[in-house]
Design a protein that fits this description.
mainly alpha, two-stranded parallel ribbon, about 5% strand
Length: about 60
Amino acid sequence: MVGERESAEYFRQSRSIVDAWDAAGLATRFGVVPDANHFTAIAPLADPGSPMVLRLKQLAGRQA
């Protein structure tokens, strides 16, 4: 996850990590948090119904 308000370098690094993990066979995807930066991009974790938390539940093997 990367905040929408981040620099092009943040986006490049995030995509690079996703590509590397995907090539290694790990479940991953690139996502953008609207109107966020690296300080606020984790704010959706406070909402149990947010897409970010629902995805974490899926990755942990607990369906939403």
